Amino acid sequence: MFAKLRKTGYKMINKLIEEIKKKKAPVVVGLDPMLSYVPEFIKENAFKEFDETLEGAAEAIWQFNKGIVDAVYDIIPAVKPQIAMYEQFGIPGLMVFKRTIDYCKQKGLVVIGDVKRGDIGSTSAAYAAAHIGEVTVGNKKYCAFDEDFITVNPYFGSDGIKPFTDACKENNKGIFILVKTSNPSSGEFQDRLIDEKPLYEHVAKKVIEWGEDCMGDTYSNVGCVIGATYPEMGKVLRKLMPKTYILVPGYGAQGGKAKDLSLYFNDDGLGAIINSSRGIIAAYKQEEYAKFKEEGFADAAREATLAMIEDINSVL
Predict the structure, then answer these.
(1) Can you tell me whether residue 76 is helix, strand or coil?
(2) pTM of the shown model
(3) Residue 233 has pLDDT above 60, yes or no
(4) Among this protein's residues, is 116 annotated catalytic?
(5) Can you tell me whether residue 313 is helix, strand or coil?
(6) Is there a contact between 207 and 224 (Cβ–Cβ < 8 Å)?
(7) Rounded to whole angstroms, how far apart are CA atoms 104 and 49?
């Protein structure tokens, strides 16, 4: 798949849009597995084989992820594994992160690696090579993690972003740059006024600039992240960034509501993809889906995903 995309010049944003259209689901499921989300029977089986070790925890996470993916891959276009949830289990956790990426791509899903990387140029180049590019070993090249998109922190400015946009162009991949995040304290920096405009608007204008050289057919391979918890800001940024795809975290568990999400979309019904993580993968813990019990955690995830898709489509 990787070689084919490079050879044909196919843009990753085009693939994401095609999958959204095909499945009529502007939805991404966040694979952010805390060990507390994993049903007891899965943990028990993993600990029998690997004991209560990092390897045991990683095996439990893998079996949990596989169950979720098998239940939802046919109704969603994309998944978003958050690397921190894997890194906490060390090298075994990172191996499961990679295994999850590979499995999702085998299922035809677009993979958005939620890694929030960004640093000075040479370090960003290494991050870009690891996640959406290639690393050279002797006379051979390898794709280490090989996500389709990753999230990127723009705090270092253009020389921190350029290695990622270069990797997008060279490998037909994409990035989502943090513009306005969904957490409560995001305004401490992001809402600060500079020349009478909030910082996030200045970042948005740079995202447009960075994205102009990475265009797909209609939208850029350089997207942005705007939280669902700030719809009025999302409305302003949507108008400012008509060709920028928006990854929208914060739906459901973090307080984002479907009635506010139409503001993030363009008139063509595209332009945004909405993320839900624990609201999907830990749905069996919610009263609404308690009937599935632990053994039916994957069925509960599918039911919650279908409900989310219907909810979002109802406001578009």
Answers:
(1) coil
(2) 0.94
(3) yes
(4) yes
(5) helix
(6) yes
(7) 25
Beta partners for residue 274, in sequence order: 27, 248
Mean pLDDT taken over the chain: 93
Q: Among residues 69, 71, 60, 75, which one has the least CA distance to residue 105? A: 69
**For the chain, how many residues are written?**
316
CA-to-CA dists, residue 296 to 253, 281, 293, angstroms: 20, 11, 5
Residue 167 to residues 32, 63, 172, 307: CA-CA distances in angstroms? 25, 32, 8, 36
Catalytic entry in 23, 66, 105, 116: 116
Q: Could you tell me the residue range of the domain that residue 83 belongs to?
A: 2-313
CATH number of residue 26's parent domain: 3.20.20.70
Segment 32-72, tens digit of pLDDT: 999 999 999 999 999 999 999 999 999 999 999 999 999 99
Give Dmax (Cα) for the chain: 60
Is residue 250 a contact partner of residue 277, using CB atoms and an 8 Å limit? no
Residue 97 · residue 86 · CB < 8 Å:
yes
Q: Name the pLDDT band for 254 (thresholds 50, 70, 90).
A: low
For the chain, the straight-line distance linking the first and the last C-alpha, in angstroms and rounded, comes to 32
List all residues 6 or more positions away from 167 whose beta carbon is below 8 Å from its beta carbon: 128, 129, 132, 133, 173
Cα separation, 112 vs 114, in Å, equals 6
**Domain count across the chain:** 1
